[in-house]
Amino acid sequence: MGVTIKDVAKKAGVSIATVSMVVNDKAGHITPKTKRKVLDAIKELDYRPNFTARSLVRKASNTIGLLVPDITNPYFAELAKSLETALNQAGYITFLCNTFEESEREKRYVNELISRAVDGLIICGLTSLETTIFASLKERRIPYLILDNRFSAENFSIHADDFAGGELAAKHLIENGHTKTLFVGSQNHYINIEQRYQGFKSIMDKHKLETNYLDTELTRVGGQKIAETVFKMDITAVFCSNDLIAIGLYDAAAKQKLTIPGDLSIIGYDNITFTSIVKPHLTTIQQPIHMLAEKACYHLLQMIHTPDYFFYKEILPVSLVSRDSVAAQ
Amino acid sequence: MGVTIKDVAKKAGVSIATVSMVVNDKAGHITPKTKRKVLDAIKELDYRPNFTARSLVRKASNTIGLLVPDITNPYFAELAKSLETALNQAGYITFLCNTFEESEREKRYVNELISRAVDGLIICGLTSLETTIFASLKERRIPYLILDNRFSAENFSIHADDFAGGELAAKHLIENGHTKTLFVGSQNHYINIEQRYQGFKSIMDKHKLETNYLDTELTRVGGQKIAETVFKMDITAVFCSNDLIAIGLYDAAAKQKLTIPGDLSIIGYDNITFTSIVKPHLTTIQQPIHMLAEKACYHLLQMIHTPDYFFYKEILPVSLVSRDSVAAQ
């Protein structure tokens, strides 16, 4: 016999209702600590919640909805292409929806995709913290997973190790003698970008170094907009939360005859294809795009085909790609 | 009373059946000259074919399907974003479908979009010359238009003036003293790219200059792949049919310590955002992305809302963006 919800409750030392709430992401009144205990018990016992009803209600349409925040960011274009390739091999076609980081549009897309009977959804970079989106998906028993960006209350998520990415960037700067640094984050407070900052800061803290913080749009224009402020700061290095912002700083530096990395060292994030075109080639944190896509495809198909399939989250490794945009101090 | 099909036939000096065939794109047995006469008569008389039945059959779903060949090409990412913005303002959401230049996938997407009751389709860069796709859209009276790439037999198309783009590139090279040139086209024989070549060649012909021709993939890798061949040719300048190919040549040139434009002048096509990042900044032909998107949105909405709406094609202007990748000989 399989493991039951009772076993999990016993192991975690909580009530069955609590386990149920965690599994169904209705964790509003549960402390992170309790949640952690439940998730650990689920993992240890290899408990698989019974979602059977899910597969009984719907017919297969062989289509998947994919929400991305900005398709003109080459990172999301590459990710979308990888996902589409993987899903196509599995016999699915993908409707790609560009949400422009607008929660209103995210909601409309999800509703439209639901009414068009998609078999599943992959949601990247959702800005809306409203759980109504997830609630209506659950109600209709449409499998979905959160890719790249995520919310702490969500099961079924896949992302790269953003905290480790921030640590790698900080270590690289410290190894190169930088003590006055800046982190550039996003105006939309994505959790993955917050994690990059936390990782970065944790290493700086260890070395008793302060670090500055700025927000901007996650675009090339976003980088150009903050350049003036950045160039006036008493810093020697910037860690940008994506490559496009770094490229925007390159643009502004060229205009002001500042040299990179002579006047300012820069690290990006994502390793989009154009990081090896800019001069100097941009040092950056590589996200495992193909692995993210493969894992997402694998788990989503399991969720579609196996009624009781459950996974908590997958965290994939990142790496530093050292090129020419960081100078030794 | 409005103009009738009889008036058009009389004006063009052809039968009513011939006019009907042109209007319904069943122009298989009609010579281009006859077709031209019919289209001129339609325009002169402002004739509007009666497509009333179209709007009676279907309910509005407020969704549009958009097919693009490669979302990782920043040109198509920008175009998709512009289209989505324009359509969203008009109250529509867009399902973006990435066809990877595979005709099998194009057909699947169109069928899926049909079965999901989209109100209209915008089709970019279709590789499939099979008219079955268009036939099934017509049968179901789903309005669609061809954007960017197109087929000579199609009405309802919008594209930039590719022939003029080719001419501009050729004139620019000749003005800079280049007599030994190369055109790089696509392995998939898109008509728009063929037109760029024809425009380029027409100017070279006028100056009694020969030009070389090569095909490759329309990607950065496509440029890298042909680089060795290109660098061995007895030429001083290359006109690439898109910017990504040009960037691929930049990559290979850097590896082989060739300088651009010292050793080789290069012109791209599209003016994607990264042309102003590469060093030297890439001289290229600018496509009017926002205008293409606005026109496409305008016409498609007319087609959806006005049963008898008809337009033949719109050709939008291109321009040369002269930067640093062409040297005077």
Automatic annotation (TrEMBL), chains A, B:
<dbReference type="InterPro" id="IPR028082">
    <property type="entry name" value="Peripla_BP_I"/>
</dbReference>
<dbReference type="InterPro" id="IPR010982">
    <property type="entry name" value="Lambda_DNA-bd_dom_sf"/>
</dbReference>
<keyword id="KW-0804">Transcription</keyword>
<dbReference type="GO" id="GO:0000976">
    <property type="term" value="F:transcription cis-regulatory region binding"/>
</dbReference>
<dbReference type="Pfam" id="PF00356">
    <property type="entry name" value="LacI"/>
</dbReference>
<dbReference type="Pfam" id="PF00532">
    <property type="entry name" value="Peripla_BP_1"/>
</dbReference>
<keyword id="KW-0238">DNA-binding</keyword>
<dbReference type="InterPro" id="IPR001761">
    <property type="entry name" value="Peripla_BP/Lac1_sug-bd_dom"/>
</dbReference>
<protein>
    <submittedName>
        <fullName>LacI family transcriptional regulator</fullName>
    </submittedName>
</protein>
<dbReference type="InterPro" id="IPR001387">
    <property type="entry name" value="Cro/C1-type_HTH"/>
</dbReference>
<feature type="domain" description="HTH lacI-type">
    <location>
        <begin position="3"/>
        <end position="58"/>
    </location>
</feature>
<dbReference type="GO" id="GO:0003700">
    <property type="term" value="F:DNA-binding transcription factor activity"/>
</dbReference>
<keyword id="KW-0805">Transcription regulation</keyword>
<feature type="domain" description="HTH cro/C1-type">
    <location>
        <begin position="2"/>
        <end position="48"/>
    </location>
</feature>
<dbReference type="InterPro" id="IPR000843">
    <property type="entry name" value="HTH_LacI"/>
</dbReference>
<keyword id="KW-0678">Repressor</keyword>
